[in-house]
Design a protein that fits this description.
Blueprint (H helix, E strand, L loop, with lengths): L8 H13 L13 H8 L3 H11 L1 H6 L20 H19 L5 H21 L10
Helix pairs in contact: 1-5, 2-3
Length: 138
Amino acid sequence: MGHGVQLKASKYRNVLKAFIKAGRHRGAHGTLMSYRDIGEVIGKGHTTIRGWIEKDFPKLFRQMGGSDGGNPNAEQPPLEPYTLADELRDQAMLAVGSIATSLSGLTPEVRWELVRQLDATRAPAIACGIKEPEPEPF
């Protein structure tokens, strides 16, 4: 990542757990994302993602094909290219996820500074323009 200190593997794993618990591992119509697609979002390789899912989410691991390899029902990768905007979005979401998983380990003083920094980024984000995304079609 180009934005600062590299996350430890345990933090990436926590981000993956939050990602899955939030249901973000499912695509349109509830289909499962592939390990590669999840890895691109989280920032880790597909084999690492597969191993973590096997250990932390055995039921999901079996749904994704278990030891037989990939998910035969996974959607094909999108045809549109992965753009710089996509990369920046994914990095920002990963950073927010990392913050969320780190909060309990921080001192109150550090959390105060973190909240101050987040508040300082709110106005510039709004000034750039924001829009609530359209809901996913059913």
